[in-house]
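Forum > Structural Biology > Help requests

Title: Can anyone predict the 3D structure of Sensors of blue-light using FAD?

Hi all, first post here. I have the sequence for Sensors of blue-light using FAD but no way to get a structure on my laptop. I'd be grateful if someone could post the structure tokens.
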Amino acid sequence: MIRILYFSTARPTVSKDTVKQITEQAKVKNHELGITGALAYNGRNFCQALEGGEAEVRGLIDEIRADERHSGFKILDEKHITERHFPDWTMELVSELDFSVVINSM
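Reply #1:
Sure, ran it for you. Structure tokens for Sensors of blue-light using FAD below:
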């Protein structure tokens, strides 16, 4: 398994409702792919951790990187793991202002 943490900047057209929709869609897709993780959004930036099978996570990262709703995509951390940090979260939107919930848990 692998865990990847990335950071990006939302386009000005992205609203909190858009982020909620993204999260709900991710819960379904991630469940199908066996991916877990967390997403932090502070009104301007995204910070997301994804974990699961390497091929599945890398494939999803490629899709997210190409999403035009954000820019400045940068992987902050990538590591092989033996257990998940977010085993019960197919995707969870964490506190809007507190990226440390995601970053410090890595």
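The chain is about 35% helix and 35% strand. Strands lie at 2-10, 36-41, 45-52, 70-80, 92-94.
Shout if anything looks off.
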